[in-house]
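Q: For a teaching handout, I want to show students what a protein-ligand complex looks like in token form. Below are the inputs, and the small molecule is adenosine-5'-diphosphate. Please produce the holo structure.
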Amino acid sequence: MNSTTRLSRPRFGERLKEQYYFFIRQIDETRVERLGIRAGMIEQYMPIRRERLNSGIEKKLALFDYAAEKELSALQDKFLPAEELFKKKYAQKEDALNKQYRLKFREYRQKLRRAEGVVDADNNLPGELAPESAKKVEVYEAELEAEKKRIIQKAADQFIKKETSGDRDGAEARSRWEERKKELAEERDRLKKGLEAKADAEYRIFAEHNEKRIARIKEKLNAERRKSEAVTTKSHTLVLPEDVALRLDGLCMYFGGLKAVDGLSFDVKKGEIFGLIGPNGSGKTTVFNCITQFYKPTSGEIWFNDRYGTTLRLNKYAVHNIIKTGIVRTFQNIELVAELTVLDNLLIAAHTQYHSGFISHMFFTPTLKRETEVLTPKALGILEEMKLLHLKDAYPVGMPYGVLKRIELARTLMADASLIILDEPAAGLNEKETEELTELLKQISREYEVTIFLVEHDMGLVMDICNHICAISFGKKLAYGVPKEIQESKDVQEAYLGVE
Ligand code: ADP
Ligand code: MG
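A: Here is the structure, written as tokens, with adenosine-5'-diphosphate included.
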């Protein structure tokens, strides 16, 4: 076994564990969400079920009423005086015939319209009939009406003859009708009560069952929540003071035998411009890479207060998820997409922060469209503040280095960062461009609620704009303080003079 495998093995395992926790947390989140939806759905279904049972009762009662009505009507026929009975029978027959004739009449209109040649796709007759046809309809209607009257009259006459021919004991028939009416009303009452009791019982069983189901789901939900909280909080119980944005606690990063960072601790205050300085090879970029989790620290902790005031242990984040915590970094070499306009470079940076991912970019889904609607004005606003608006439709290729730096800073602002970390932003800039960058960083710090973490080799820049500075040498802290204290520090002077 050589030294490389021995060294890489625990780190690989550690990384795998972090990935696993992250993965599990995401699964838990969707599971919790699904359980919540299910419980909500069951809850919402309960009144619907009650409503169904109620309408079932109504339907059964309506059937009963129909039969009772028919029975009572027949009983009533036995004692009604001939004149009233005739009126009743006439009305009944007319009602039935009207339904029949309406159909006949419709058919006739349809026939005429078809003869006129205008029928829509559903065989319906839209609009008015031609005058001739309208006349025919009128005639037909009158004919039907006369025919209807004749039929009704005949039917009613016949019925009366039949009903009133035999003996009609009015009083006895009436009391039978009245008695039956009372009986039926009582019967209906009993039926209603019975149906209601049955429905109540059915609903109670259903409700009990469902409440148990909901309780079970909620219990599961809470268990999932507790589990997922355990995963997130198991690793730490530390809460950073409110005014601290970032804390390095005993950070070590070893490359084999080389201690690139060796027990480094310091705090970065919220909203300040912080500078990490040191001679070449002192470990600045390594610190930077540890914060972004590009390197997994050999030991030591990195804590971060996110914009919601939650203290996160950065060590457990995968490098590609760091951006989700609100930390944005820029590289020493500028990373803009040459094929995209300046505006699109800003938009694409923001999209990675929001929901639409790779798939939506391929198919330009509605989510992406909505996001673009929201993000474009934001991007234009940032470009304006960075004095880049006139370049929004230009391609970054061939632009001056200072301009590219500005575009890249504008891009970091799109991600709603609460901490921006920059590795030697002044490297490669001339004096005038460095001055512009200084102004720009001051402006960003003033106008956006961000903390700026500067990794710098150039003492001039940090002395100008930093609130606090930490100077390191060989991965160890030399001095921490305000620019004046750093400038006057003997250790710092020696380190710089000693190396250069
Ligand atoms: P700075 O950014 O301050 O110039 P670096 O953090 O880049 O310093 O480097 C600090 C030390 O760590 C240097 O000696 C460098 O050679 C070493 N180093 C940096 N990265 C690695 C790596 N990936 N593997 C091995 N050694 C590294
Ligand atoms: Mg470096």
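A: Two things your students might notice: The chain has a mean pLDDT of 81. The CA atoms of residues 53 and 199 lie 6 Å apart.
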